[in-house]
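Worked example 3 (structure in, sequence out).
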């Protein structure tokens, strides 16, 4: 028991917190680079046969609700990771909001794929990976809250 009367943080809390923080920080970086139309960043889209201008035009077509959902997904996960490290029980809530954001964004992104991309396996694989990670983080935060580690 720590001085606060709750169990000491297990070693894996710090590993999960730091790894998830790094993982989720990249999602936020990606969001910022697309929202600010960073041409140097978006040049990576050329590997998928999409020009920078086409990528910018595509992201500019997102309706407000899809953009909001995407933001909720990435920033919710980052907040959840920070809250894990701060040992806050609200980490669970942040990860749930992130999952909601991801699930709400999926219909738009899969229904309106990036023009010119004919192979959607990369997008499907990445979305599946992100979904699994968020679900695991929701579960982990809930488990740590039940054990009294997060308070």
């Amino acid at each position: 028991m720590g001085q606060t009367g709750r169990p000491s943080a297990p070693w894996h809390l710090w590993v999960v917190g730091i790894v998830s923080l790094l993982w989720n920080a990249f999602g936020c970086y990606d969001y910022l680079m697309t929202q600010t139309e960073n041409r140097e960043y978006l040049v990576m889209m050329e590997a998928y046969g999409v020009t920078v201008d086409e990528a910018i035009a595509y992201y500019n077509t997102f309706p407000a609700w899809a953009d909001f959902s995407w933001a909720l997904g990435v920033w919710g996960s980052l907040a959840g990771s920070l809250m894990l490290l701060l040992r806050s029980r609200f980490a669970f809530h942040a990860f749930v909001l992130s999952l909601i954001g991801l699930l709400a964004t999926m219909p738009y992104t899969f229904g309106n794929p990036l023009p010119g991309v004919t192979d959607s396996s990369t997008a499907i694989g990445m979305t599946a990976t992100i979904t699994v990670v968020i679900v695991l983080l929701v579960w982990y935060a809930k488990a740590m809250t039940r054990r009294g580690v997060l308070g």
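Notes: The mean pLDDT is 93. The chain is about 70% helix and 0% strand.
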